[in-house]
Specification:
Elements (H helix, E strand, L loop, with lengths): L1 H17 L19 E4 L13 E2 L4 E8 L6 E6 L8 E4 L2 H4 L1 E2 L5 E4 L7 E3 L5 E8 L7 E7 L2
Parallel strand pairs: 6-8
Antiparallel strand pairs: 1-4, 2-3, 3-9, 4-5, 4-8, 5-7, 7-10, 9-10
């Protein structure tokens, strides 16, 4: 009886060790946001333009590309729907920590903001990708990365 219990316990331990936890990996492209979101800033005259519509990369991550042509110019932008709706008007959360973006460093967003424009100053002209990650819907993360084409 003892040998049977030990064998069952060992089998349970071994099967638990061999299982893979993919809960951190979200590869679904089924959108979790029920509105179209746009990158809106001084480069779009704050309009919701189709060229700057964010596309779902996964269920939680949305991206848009923008060509920034003036190095050392500070660009201001937000991520919002067409109507600047509550819950879909995303600017920085903390002025001290999240207002100024740097390449590859995520900052927190407040999607119930009125002004709170993100600021980004590119070091060189080129294409940049702005993404927002809604994995934590209360505090999405916004990131800027340079795109080399």
């Amino acid at each position: 009886m003892k040998k049977a219990l030990i064998a069952i316990s060992m089998a349970a331990v071994l099967s638990a060790c061999s299982s893979t936890d993919n809960s951190l990996e979200d590869t679904s492209t089924q959108s979790n946001v029920d509105k179209n979101l746009y990158l809106r800033g001084d480069f779009t005259l704050w309009e919701a333009q189709s060229a700057y519509k964010l596309s779902a990369q996964t269920a939680n991550i949305y991206e848009a590309k923008v060509k920034l042509t003036n190095p050392d110019k500070t660009y201001e932008f937000k991520i919002a729907d067409e109507a600047w709706s509550e819950g879909f008007n995303c600017g920085y959360k903390s002025e001290e920590l999240d207002k100024n973006l740097e390449i590859g460093i995520p900052v927190q967003a407040n999607c119930n903001s009125v002004y709170n424009y993100f600021r980004f100053t590119p070091y060189e002209a080129g294409w940049y990708q702005v993404s927002i990650n809604f994995k934590n819907k209360r505090t999405p993360l916004v990131t800027v990365n340079q795109v080399f084409e």
